[in-house]
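Contributing new records

If you add data, match the layout below exactly. Sequence lines come first and carry their own label; structure lines follow with theirs. Keep one chain per record. Anything else will be rejected by the validation script.
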Amino acid sequence: MKGLVKVNLGCGPKGKDDWVNVDYGILALLAKYPFLKKIAMRIGILPKRYTKWEWPKNLVIHDCRKKLPFKDNQMDYVYTSHLIEHFSKYEAINMLNECFRILKPGGYIRVIVPDLELLARKYVECDHNFFLANTDKRHAKDIVLADLFNMWFYTEKNREPISSFYGSLYHKFTRGHKWLYDFESLSLMLKDCGFIDIKRRKYREGNVPDLEFLDHFQETSLYVEAMKPTHTNPKLLESFLR
């Protein structure tokens, strides 16, 4: 694996130092600039639980909804976990197109999102315990099943008003879920971007390296990998055959 160029988009505090780690938002900025973190803690914007997180030292601050700061055909692997569900669908498609651009022919992408099919099935089955086990315990007490289900789609501030000024400021810089995917919908998006060999994978299993460190959220996630073709881009070939 020596010499491979690997990028983790939306790395959060789980980045690995031999990857290019990219993230954006207030938490990433505070991790990148410790003096801002101290100020945020002092005025109460940053919850104490976030102070224990160790972000990667080589963190790149970049909004992945915009053009990625990498050259064409530069990356061997792209990994992105629990990121695109925070984007509008068209923004997620734009990012996946960018991933296709920066991957080398034969390179792999691994996309991990909350599994919409699983969540829907657990709701229909009235599996209250599943949602309680996979919901922030601070917000799960005495909440009915429908509310637990809705919390996968909407932000906390949609459920109840944020009482403090600093709490409101914090929520302005955080993003709830905007669009969820099942295997069929995510596969179609990847296919439309030009990817082939699209497969559903298991937790910490696949072609992308370092999954034993990178993969998390086993109970609720959909894991999908796809490859950039080594031959002519199928989208361009199709346009010539029309």
